[in-house]
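Ticket #4471: structure output looks truncated?

Reporter: J.K.
Steps to reproduce: submitted the chain below (246 residues) through the standard prediction queue, then opened the result file.
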Amino acid sequence: MSYSIEPSYQSAISKRQRALSATMAILPLSISVIPWGVLCGTLSIEAGLSSFQAQLMSLLVFAGAAQISGIAILGAGGSLLSLVNSTGMISVRHVLYSATYQDAIITLPFYKRALFAFLLTDEMFVVAQANQLKTGRFDYWYAIVAGFVFYVIWNLATLMGIVSAHLLRNIDQLGFDFAIVATFIAMVVPMVKSKALLIAVVVSAIAALLFEILHISNGLMFSALLGMAVGTMLSRAAIKDSGAST
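Returned output as attached by the reporter:
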């Protein structure tokens, strides 16, 4: 005797499996940013925000580097213009992330696109891209689950930082900010799978270091653009060479 499984049941199983897969994929990156989130929560309190305001920032803004930069500006008494400019410069890469998925989500309802945009982070992008390369298609559900898991852990880390700020002093001196560097290294290295990408990463890294030494404003953005330009030229050259050889 054979039994057939209803399509709806199969779909439910598939969604649970993909959700579990997304959770396991994003978990290492989520754990790696816990020190970063703790630092963000602590610095928020030290900058003069209340516990409620500090947690609300992570709940609504949900942008680690932009949050820490904004907290530093607020703590130093910076202007609103400086805050907006800093946030825009740091977050401009998300425009590229969004452009990558434009064709995949353009037909989705607005609320789904809005949710995707809100949860879109460097970590979610890397995990979603890796899954797309593996399966050959973009999986909205997979991306959303990965983004939501990261969102929850980030906010829990922020809460830990807020509590720590009331119990410990000078927690920012413990070197938690290295988690930022470690996280980006962990995201970038697995994505480097071609000579063009490797050269682009090296060029960006060297340029960022030089711009920092020379105290060039917005050096990080310029180094990223330089790396992308080099990577694009090398990729096009490789495609042209392969076309000529065939």
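Triage note (M.O.): checked the attachment and the full token line is present. The longest helix spans residues 140-167.
Status: closed, working as intended.
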